[in-house]
Amino acid sequence: MRSLKFFAVTLMLWPYLGIALLYVPGDVVPSIAFFLYLLLTAAVYGINIINACRWKGEARQLAFWNMLIKLAHIPFHLILFLVGLVFLLAMVVPALLFVSPILIVIFSVISYLLLLTSSAYGVNAIVRGKTGGALSTKAAIVLGILHFLFVTDLISAIIVFVKLRGRRS
């Protein structure tokens, strides 16, 4: 249980650490910290996916942490969306005409990779809920698909948690 909590909390806070690195003063330190952050991001995402898949406890705990992670990431996704929107609107400036689309694609990839990583907890909870009899096949398929789309992933996470809340699996 401790490893589940530790890695889930790490995943909840990890994107905000990246934003905090933007405010590190100096010239050399931020670039080194940024590349170290990128390397550690791959490790954190990979460890969380493995952690979700190897969890031996109850499905409702996975569903709870999935929902909590997704709720914690709402401000991060909103920040990326708003910054991307500003760059989209700033494309009237000739210098940003070519840079803005690249940054918007990078923001989209970052956001979707975060969504996929957090969805590992939910998909595993759905599979366990299906095998435990708490979810029907149709519900499991629909909820699983919803976990891979923006906004609906949060709705799906809440539904899975509510359905598995009272069940032991």
UniProtKB/TrEMBL annotation:
<feature type="transmembrane region" description="Helical">
    <location>
        <begin position="74"/>
        <end position="96"/>
    </location>
</feature>
<feature type="transmembrane region" description="Helical">
    <location>
        <begin position="32"/>
        <end position="53"/>
    </location>
</feature>
<keyword id="KW-1133">Transmembrane helix</keyword>
<feature type="transmembrane region" description="Helical">
    <location>
        <begin position="7"/>
        <end position="26"/>
    </location>
</feature>
<feature type="transmembrane region" description="Helical">
    <location>
        <begin position="139"/>
        <end position="162"/>
    </location>
</feature>
<keyword id="KW-0812">Transmembrane</keyword>
<keyword id="KW-0472">Membrane</keyword>
<feature type="transmembrane region" description="Helical">
    <location>
        <begin position="102"/>
        <end position="127"/>
    </location>
</feature>
<dbReference type="Pfam" id="PF20357">
    <property type="entry name" value="DUF6652"/>
</dbReference>
<protein>
    <submittedName>
        <fullName>Uncharacterized protein</fullName>
    </submittedName>
</protein>
<dbReference type="InterPro" id="IPR046594">
    <property type="entry name" value="DUF6652"/>
</dbReference>
